[in-house]
Amino acid sequence: MSRPLRLLTLGHSYVVGTNRALADAMARAGGGRWEVTVAAPDAFPGDLGPIRLAAVPGEAPRLEPVPVHGAGRIHTMRYGSRLRALLREGWDAVHCWEEPFIAAGAQVAAWTPRDARLVYATFQNLPKRYPPPFGWMERYAMRRAAGWIAFGATVEETLRTRPLYQARPHRVISPGVDTARFRPDAEARGRVREALGWSADGPLVIGYLGRFVPEKGITLLLRALAGARQPWRVLLVGGGPMEGELRAWAAGQGDRARVVTGVRHEEVPAHLNAMDLLCAPSQTTARWREQLGRMLLEAMACGVPVIGSDSGEVPHVLADAGVVVAEADGAAWTREIDRLLADSGERAAMAARGLARVEAEFALPVVARRHLAFFEELVRGA
């Protein structure tokens, strides 16, 4: 029997245990064909304070802590020499969840032995040309790469015609969603609403989950709610520079608005379950458009109907499982919110379509098998 293929998957986001769900799924999907190791920072700054790497009980891959330096500035963050030594351990494939145009991505290109197939995963869905030294880093990294994974259709559209990317095999594969964690949960729904001081028989709850920043379209959502005819409650979950503004607005809404910050990763599924409708009104700017909208996948997995804007990746994620509204059309947002609040049958149908779409396209076992199949194509074609 031939030996298992060896995969090293690495990235700074792996310091959070829940972010290693894809790596765990790849280890489980690999069976006896793949041996999977995860390299993650031993510590990293987080929104709620420093995060220390800790193993998740029962996770399948081997977990290797590696120091990082300058983690406060992601473009110039660097890995320590422990990663360099780890990369010399004889890998068939190295999966780099760092963008190729940052210092850490270039480090991995320099340190990965030539006989390993190096694959970058990227969220970059804007046609950017990076100034020195970041453009140099991107060219260096992609010349070394054996292939790349686009984390969405708009990423592929942006990169596939650029020579450095066009010349290399690629796949469009989502990072996926953990349907064991994100699932319909009536008990969690009741528990969160009770903690918020909301009765079970009040108006339906419209939700938002994400960063409190202008480009996420929260101001548009509040204007749309102001024009709605149907009764509503709203739950805004996240954090960011707009927190003070949102709390001031909520204070004028009586009992029908809640702003919740400091929600930890493990508490997100419960808060999504407390919502009857998730709104994702992302707004495209000159420097940003929605790259994935992870909250869309997570909400659909929890059986929550979704309205999303037509910014970036949102229409590709939702397809026919949600409602897509023009990002700048506040009147259309109000109409769709009113329509769905009034139509329980359509909400139930959307929830069912969302669950089916997640299971077919975004569940971790599905995307893990797609990743491994691509890695194996590159290795076997060597």
UniProtKB/TrEMBL annotation:
Keywords: Transferase. Residues 21-181 form the Glycosyltransferase subfamily 4-like N-terminal domain. Residues 201-354 form the Glycosyl transferase family domain. SUPFAM superfamilies: UDP-Glycosyltransferase/glycogen phosphorylase. It comes from the Bacteria. Gene3D superfamilies: Glycogen Phosphorylase B. InterPro entries: Glyco_trans_1, Glyco_trans_4-like_N, Glycosyltransferase_grp1. GO terms for molecular function: hexosyltransferase activity. It holds the Pfam family Glyco_transf_4. This is Glycosyltransferase involved in cell wall biosynthesis.
